[in-house]
Amino acid sequence: MVTDGGKPADGAAQGGKPGPEPSRSTERSGAGVPVAAPPVGASTGAPAEYPPGQSQAGRGMFGVRGSGDTSGFGGLRPHRPELANASRPYGGPGRSGGRGDFDEVYDALEEAFPGLDDAIEGVTVYRDELTLHIRSARIAEVCQVLRDDESLRFELCSSVSGVDYLGTDDRRLHVVYHLTSMTYRRRIRLEAAVSVADPRLPSVTAVYPTADWQERETYDMFGVVFEGHPNLTRILMPDDWEGHPQRKDYPLGGIPVEYKGAEIPPPDTRRVYQ
Amino acid sequence: MSYASERDTAEGKVFNVTGGDWDTVVAGTDPLHDERIIVNMGPQHPSTHGVLRLILELEGETVTEARAVVGYLHTGIEKSLEYRNWVQGTTFVTRMDYLAPLFNETGYSLAVEKLLGITDEITERATTIRVLMMELNRIASHLIWIATTGLELGAVNVMLYGFREREFILEIFEMVTGLRMNHAYIRPGGLAQDVPDQAIVKIREFLTLMPKRLAEYEKLLSGQPIWKERTQNVAVLDVTGCLALGITGPVLRSAGLAWDLRKTMPYCGYETYDFEVPIADTADVWGRYEVRMAEMRESLKIIEQAVDRLRPGPVMIADRKIAWPAQLAIGADGLGNSLEHIAKIMGQSMESLIHHFKLVTEGFRVPPGQVYVGLESPRGELGVHAVSDGGTRPYRVHYREPSFVNLQAIPAIAEGALIADVIAGGASLDPVMGGCDR
Crossing angle for the helix pair B124-152 and B156-177, nearest 10 degrees? Predict the structure, then answer.
């Protein structure tokens, strides 16, 4: 787009053509970054500048279909994670004959927590890390057992955070807990999924007081509501902030910058190329 | 008293003054037991290590309630990461905890490498240099701690000395990475460039200098009655309290638990280095001081071993699909791609040019999945949770920042203590707000 010389950038943004409002509410699966309209300053008419809306894979600049991989490096297809159940034995460190620490943890949990089959949705082992997918309503009970049982002893809750898997409606917001057993020197990951419509799950602050601020951060960034939390308020953003910035349909922000007459759009409205 | 009738409410005595003798009104309150005031300390208070805000409820000089407010330095680094490719992420994360940038970079790189499944392919030289740089960084960070804490507790000379020695380390960093802070030196796959020979000479010089300087600090502080009074039995937090609140690092070790991820869950080959995990049993600010002083000595031991085992070799992974295609060199106009490389891609090999272009603009793809990597930063467990959706950009990266988690201990160590001890106690946690707020 050519604008007249020395016009300041914000003047161009406000006084020029009214840019399309990025839609925050609609979920758009696809190229990782929601793009509501062709970005400002990119209208050369080339087909490549319209990122595919429906395709799960980014098609790239050259309009390639299929894997979207124009690099020839990866041959990989971006995907949304599914509950791929690992099969026994799970292995893990201290492996002997296929069985390892992960099997020990799972066996001990099964013994200490009678209703485990109801509480667990799946088990994933990837890159030598064990992930237990827990039904969101049961997360605090499972944490309690993991902390207290003598053969589990996950004393330290290292991290609580969220991941937004946009496009998987009823399991969109995942809360991820990383627990550390100092006694056995092990780590496991718990994952609980909630929907945006009803983003509630029990707080684990009664079991792990350290989760206090980390749950507040997850609430602040993703809008997950931890029931039973003593003081669930925003922690990093200002109190009166609207929206939850780490959600995938929340724009990065930024203003278009005019440079030598051309307008450079903010990063999240640029052409998607991945 | 007819002109100042009094009644009791939940907030205390309320006087309805109709005029007259103010002495009688004032005499009706108890100045000794009604000194409840709320003090807002920060976010611009010089002793709160950046923009930390403490809200303290005081009864005289005693803190009855303390709350920490954070977020003033939130810059959305985790969000910004999702809009850049995997290699560019290093440049962001290095700006989180600005006193331990090389730990942020190493944590990020280890996480990306684990996602790629190339952890074992990282060259030995690159890993050794990572350890070397991290331990130098640990000393620099602890020096800042001793300098600022000294300043806050009245020992201004220690501040000057601490910054002087840190300057030495920053000069080493500048020789190696080109920058004093925000290095973006440790990258997925290896390092940005090799360590120059002059830097090794300078590190050796540092190794002979530093033990003497550490002894000097101890001479200044350890026998000093004011320093002892201000630190001993101040801000006590035992192992139970630490574990419940998730406190790791020197604070946990000062309570007597020798939990150091370099020993307990080793990474970067730390299991092959000979060093001790210093602990104290006092669980107070004094213990944290002793632990940090001893840790600097242990770091010197590790640096010496790392320098000794440096052997010539590549510092980037051999896999050309991941390694940065260009080598850097100093030209007439500053640091840039080496002329040799430019000549090759511009004059000899179009495939090299395409390869360079694709890798630099688009970046490499990382298989979908998630990993968590924990490492021992100067402040405790620095955890990196990285999620990939198979694309060339991070889907989500979360930093478990020890500053953020450790600050939760403020109410536990401040309530019931004197307001002066809040300064000492808060400083002993060594929070860095850039890391805390990200």
Answer: 160
